[in-house]
Amino acid sequence: MAGGGREIIVLAEVGEGGDPTVLTLELLGLARGLVSEQGMVTAVVLGSHLEGALDEIASRGADRVIYLEHPSLAPYNPEAWQAVLEPYLEEQGAGLILAGHTCLGQDLLPRLAFSLEAGVVTDCVGIRAGEDSFLFTKPVYGGNALATMRVTTPLALATVRSRVGEVLPPSSPGGELVPLPADPPAVTRMVVRERRSLEAGECPLEEARVVVSGGRGMGGREGFEMLRELARLLGGAVGASRPPVDSGWAPATCQVGITGKVVAPELYIAVAISGSSQHLSGMCDSGKVVAINKDPEAYIFKVSDYGVVGDWKEVLPAFISRLRELV
Amino acid sequence: MHIVVLAKVVPDPEGPPSSYEVNPADKRVVARGLPPVINPFDENALELAIRVKERIGGSVTLLSLGRNLSRAVILKAMAAGADASVLLEDEAWDQALLDSRATATLLAAALRKLEPFDLVLCGRQASDTNAGVVGLGVARLLGIPAVTLARSLEVEGGRVVVERVLSDGCEVVECDLPALVTVSGEAGELRYPSLQAIRAARELPQRVLGPKELEGDVPPPWMETVCLEPPRRERRCRLVEADSPAEAGEKLALLLWEEGVI
After folding, report:
1. Is residue A178 within 8 angstroms of chain B, CB to CB?
2. Could A284 and B231 be called an inter-chain contact, meaning their C-beta atoms sit closer than 8 Å?
């Protein structure tokens, strides 16, 4: 019997600023909706400076917040995290462990799954409680199909995309805070030597509220300058479909799609993108989608909320100057 | 320096959506008319392996698992700069039926036969299952450290130094060898082999291993597919009508403003 009255554990992530990530709070909301009445939701928080994050996490749907503060847990080192997490998780006997489908979640959950001998489903766009187990939905074949998976082991693990769960309003009193009695190992086989953040003013694509992406029809680097201007105006980030990256007009770090970065901003603006499956699969969970394309038959219009049929070279300058007056 | 690259043969992920037929009855996706290719991220991994070999010497072995693996695809990948290939091939090793646990177990068993190796490289995920689990599983089963999402790597004094892609930048991780590293698209595309290199690759050593040559059994699965369906992502699009593209641009700005989108 997987699921049932058992515990659901959410592995929290705390951002550089010391706040829990929005995705962490969404996972707590998701877990709350999945857990049965007898079950409980536990958040596990590891890092070096957690004080600001714990109360916030405790108030957003966690019955209990298990935490461990230690300098060797930040930045994330998988071996240090595994060493403190695995004995705890082993003992806990939870039915489900959730993490965000982030760089950390993608790295950590498959490791835990193989250590705990349990099935893991990554990149979930939906989870629901079935009759006797959880059902996980995820895109496969570059987004050309949606698979629903069941895990056959008593414990299931899953990484989940943004916007699958909803952030709950804060509740008081929140769940109790319980320190995890564990010590990270003094020596690990791998060490993080240095960490380089994006340049000031650049926003990580996955966390941007607005993403402005260009496709093959941008025709060159110059077009991306205008997209950057638009992104700056809206406080967003610039993305690209695969052809501009292959042509060297945009860096590979910008590529949105199942083979690049998966994003779900509040607003996604697709400029001169026709809409290949693998691109759509990387942005289809966005709040609102706007398409600008000169081909009225472009598939992107079928998956957009607002559209303009026209050449971006003429549409965008007018769009940007009108926006300047408005925002 | 012996580097083993794990390469999965998949239907070309750049194919048009119309070529993917979802068959809910037998829970399979049929890619009609799409040629098999090496998973693009595994190609990135092979490219990094070849770069290491060019800098410090050594050999690169390509390892692939499946049923009826395309020899032409393997040959072309080898021609880019590998020295040998090992194919794990059997009627029962249908990639659509093996879960990540079974796949990792078979690959780990094969890697034990290829010892000694210093580095195992593979893509961050396969383009068909989109999971990113097998590489980490292989490392765990072999008891070696694993580093994910590499965009470049260097081997220095018995250790591997990996530049990892993060959402807000990158980090440099140093790790003991032997190690497994999963590679991201930022590593760059696999070089294209010349026709001459493809012809020469036919002479390179190729081994095929079946169930008899590998130790251990395929373990029972940890998960199963309940159903497969076509994606649902269509929305109702409001097209902005105007006399000129510029006017449409202005109207779009106003519309988004009025509706509280921006």
Report:
1. no
2. yes
